[in-house]
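Database export, one record per block. Field names are fixed; values are copied verbatim from the stored entry.
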Amino acid sequence: MYKILHKESLGTNLHLLEVEAPRIARKAESGQFIILRLKEEAERIPLTIADYSREKGTLTIIFQEVGFSTRELAGCQAGDTILDLVGPLGVPSEIENYGTVVCVGGGVGIAPVYPITRDLKKAGNRVFSIIGARNSGLLFWREKMAEVSDQLFITTDDGSEGRKGFVSDVLKEILDKEKVQRVWAIGPMIMMKVVADTTRPYGVPTIVSLNPIMVDGTGMCGACRVAVGKETKFACVDGPEFDAHLVDFDLAMKRAAFFKDKEQQALAMCKCGGERR
């Protein structure tokens, strides 16, 4: 059992949990993820590690309430416990001194891009960061991102905060002015696809973190398979980070929507006070 030490609301349906998990915190690296199961009959939820403290023995995870399982998780409070928490899983980010890098976080993707940005800054890189969301209520960790960036840009689709527009608009302007060695982008699949299309003409290596449907997190079930170049990869053991210019985003988005109808049915039943089967 893993005790929730702290819960915090970060915005519209956005939640932060700090969980006591000293063994996982001791080995966690930026770019990795965990899989949690709230209770015996609950769904397994993969979440990228947003932060960790080896000294306190804690993990920080951030999630958006979008379906039945995340709604259940959002109902937890400090002092409650999570039944299973497995990790750290996945291949850590390749952190080096590349020179000038750009880190892009969209929506809840701001959470996993934070530790990568922090470690890239520690490694001596000059870091430009761009965070964006549909509106101001979906933005968070502005100060934390600013602390680990040489320059932070904020965008919102509706112009309620920062620049009105998309993260890719700012990214293109940076690429026009600066010699950038590498770009990281984490967020909605369509955002990562647009970022890949933006950096491709400039020949800038671009890394994205995929979060496909995932079950066991060990490469055994095959649910998280993605097409990268001419190969089939498994996001849980080969990723979650991949070369954005090789990812088949259209196929990835199609697979991600495969169970959308069933998830909506389960969520509707939850709202009506029923139990999910």
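Remark 1: The first strand starts at residue 2 and ends at 11.
Remark 2: The chain has a mean pLDDT of 90.
End of record.
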